[in-house]
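Box 3.1 — From sequence to structure: UDP-N-acetylenolpyruvoylglucosamine reductase
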Amino acid sequence: MTTILNNTSLKSLHTFRLPYSARKIIEITDAAALAEIEDAYYVLGEGSNTIFTSDFEPTLARIAIKGIQVERAVDAHYLSVGAGENWHQLVEYTLAHDMPGLENLALIPGSVGAAPVQNIGAYGVEVGQYIHKVRAWDKQSRTFVSFDQQACQFAYRDSLFKRNANRYVIVEVTFCLPHAWEPTLNYGGLTELAGTRSASAIKDAVIRIRQSKLPDPKEIPNAGSFFKNPVISQQQYASLLERFPQAPSYPTADGNVKVAAGWLIDTLGLKGFSIGGAAVHTKQALVLINKANATGADILTLAYEIKRQVADAFGIELEVEVRLLNHKELIS
Ligand SMILES: Cc1cc2nc3c(=O)[nH]c(=O)nc-3n(C[C@H](O)[C@H](O)[C@H](O)COP(=O)(O)OP(=O)(O)OC[C@H]3O[C@@H](n4cnc5c(N)ncnc54)[C@H](O)[C@@H]3O)c2cc1C
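Predicted structure (token representation):
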């Protein structure tokens, strides 16, 4: 079914809850409809990584395709999941049916269709590891296309879909959860679970840690990490360490170093710093919040100011992780 919504408030459709509206939203529950309707400019999932900084003129699409189909093969469970399913509910479903693998990604807000776009990740696991196939509508060729894991070009908070912004409308994601499962416990507060073989216990721990660290968007509007953790060369890292020996960092697979963006912002004393109604969260420097009646301009000015201060102090360019939209297009 296809539903058209005109002049609709976006406040409850993105977690930063800015009071803007969309001229037209097309909601679809059936992939086949994509071939018959106009192409929307931007696909909106649950809006937890999207900030509308103004009223939005071009057409939006919301993909409400539901369904989880499970196939048990010799090596793994293969789950084909509609893009409109909720991510955390999928994680709960897999664990309730004894299919471990996604537990470290519990409680990440958003839809299944958005998960491959920025290759969601947390506590040492990225969703791309478990993606077997992505089926999407290609607005350029106006056909349905399928991408295997390699073709998705997953990288840190990145993928083919993110790099070709607005080209593909993901309708279904197929996950491969191998029967041979090993827990990933080398991150954050999970190390104390060493030795556990219970994916549900890991999921519960992840939920507890996340709830203690991150503001709940239902109470404090936010879009999660506003900036990516910057990846710098060994040489840049050595010079950073000379001035800041305590800078937290993680090695990357390609020999570079990922630095904690939250630490950079915190070190500049910016926790709680605000411009208009937008602020840096007082407990988590990587999260910007809508403190009270923030405007799009408040957020853009705050983000610009943080980027400027980090560049001046550390010589590091922060890259915005969230998707920012102005009145007519994606601006990051
Ligand atoms: C409190 C909080 C904590 C978070 N923690 C994490 C975390 O730990 N790790 C992490 O990686 N992210 C995290 N995020 C970010 C966010 O949860 C993810 O990016 C999530 O995948 C966004 O899903 P969504 O449906 O809300 O996407 P939206 O914000 O609606 O869209 C995000 C992007 O995906 C595209 N998109 C959405 N659906 C489709 C589709 N069907 N086809 C094609 N493109 C589509 C959009 O066009 C946009 O580019 C957090 C966010 C919040 C608010």
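Summary of the box: Residues 15, 42-50, 63, 83, 108-111, 113-115, 117-118, 120-122, 161, 168-170, 214, 217, 222-224, 323 surround flavin-adenine dinucleotide (CB under 6 Å).
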